[in-house]
Design brief:
Elements lengths: L2 H11 L2 H7 L13 E3 L2 E5 L3 H16 L8 H12 L6 H11 L7 H13 L9 H12 L6 H15 L24 H16 L6 H15 L9 E3 L4 E4 L3 E2 H19 L2 H9 L25 E4 L3 H12 L12 E4 L1 E2 L1 H11 L4 H4 L1
Antiparallel strand pairs: 1-2, 1-8, 3-4, 5-6, 6-7
């Protein structure tokens, strides 16, 4: 590993402790986490079961690595379980809870699979789910240590959907399996969570098609990574191109790309993927369009993104997707601003990506 990569990993690893320390301010009286905090406003905004579950995954990762945590994972799990008892739970949320169950077995796995099936049936099935939710379904089922026949059947159907109707010839994943105007234009979340899901399936030897499909998508993403290491936001799955680079999100740089591409590298033995993730880390520390520190965790947050000044961001997005146009990939520092908010899941994925990572072991 190069000195630059080692330095990137060390700096990212140093964010784990302050990220953990920032989470308690986001806990609401219900025990769930808020939707977001905004710089200059001491009051957390909204409530999110989904973000609570993603933070739970990060806390479980930290606990497993022996990293001290200021919130007990069990407390978040109990709050999320209570919320999931409400009528009509979202399939993606149930899948996240199933994923967490694989790390801290409470005996709920079988029941969660049944609830997941019910939630999918009530919400358009596998083809009707947004790409990120379908990927979470695959990951949650693939991570189960002892799946029953029902779980195995649902996993097989979900993998078929992901690498069948959802994967375009370019290698990128469509935003939905069903028809619709947004189907062609996935965001980075759909791409990276899908690659992670198939990496987990492949690493566990559950389907021989999984790793080749994950690598096709990841190879395409690597060609589209920005010159400064940033991961652009919106893609055209049919053409395999970027249609809108902004917003460039911090969580993609410090959490989602590293946790996915490191997993893929481990699964297939190709260091190119981990190297691309590591190359994106300096973007957080000023190697970006605005020269901004995107991880001021001494303020209790990471900045969410660099975005186009509003309302020009919507105009630019609609114009580009309307004509499936690839924007210029050079540096673009004009008409941009910092999004000075932070959501709990961003810290959860940061912790998931870096808690317990032994940089020296990879040097």
């Amino acid at each position: 590993m190069t000195a630059d990569r080692t330095a990137s990993r060390q700096r990212a690893g140093e964010l784990v402790a302050p990220a953990l320390a920032a989470l308690p301010q986001m806990v609401l009286p219900s025990g769930l986490l808020c939707h977001e905090i905004v710089e200059g406003d001491a009051t957390p905004r909204g409530e999110s079961v989904r973000y609570t579950l993603i933070a739970l995954l990060g806390l479980l990762r930290a606990e497993h690595a022996g990293v001290p945590t200021p919130i007990a994972a069990a407390a978040l799990r109990d709050a999320a379980d209570a919320a999931l008892e409400r009528p009509g739970p979202n399939p993606g949320d149930v899948a996240l809870r199933l994923w967490a169950e694989s790390r801290a077995d409470t005996g709920a796995g079988g029941g969660l699979v049944v609830r997941l099936e019910d939630a999918l049936e009530a919400n358009g099935g596998l083809a009707g789910r947004e790409g990120l939710e379908l990927a979470w379904v695959v990951t949650g089922l693939a991570a189960m240590p002892d799946p029953d026949s029902r779980a195995r059947r649902l996993l097989a159907a979900a993998v078929d959907q992901l690498i069948g109707a959802n994967q375009a010839a370019s290698g990128l994943f469509r935003h939905f399996g069903d028809r619709g105007p947004r189907r062609r234009f996935p965001n980075f979340a759909t791409e990276i969570y899908s690659v992670l899901a198939l990496s987990v399936v492949g690493r566990r030897g559950l389907d021989p098609r999984a790793l080749p499909a994950a690598r096709r998508a990841a190879d395409r993403l690597l060609t589209l990574q920005l010159a400064d290491g940033g991961w652009p936001w919106m893609y055209d799955a049919e053409l395999g191109t970027v249609v809108e680079r902004y917003e460039v999100y911090s969580v993609h740089q410090h959490g989602m790309a590293p946790m996915t591409l490191h997993e893929l590298s481990e699964a297939c033995g190709d260091e190119r993927y981990a190297a691309a993730a590591d190359r994106g880390v300096p973007w957080l520390f000023g190697a970006n369009e605005l020269g901004a520190d995107m991880a001021p965790l001494e303020r209790g947050m990471t900045y969410r993104s660099i975005r186009r000044v509003r309302p020009l961001d919507r105009v630019w997005l609609y114009a580009n997707t309307a004509v499936a146009r690839s924007p210029a990939r050079g540096r673009a520092g004009r008409m941009l601003e910092l999004n000075r908010s932070c959501r709990p899941y961003e810290l959860g994925w940061l912790i998931e990506a870096w808690a317990g990572v032994n940089v020296a072991a990879h040097a």
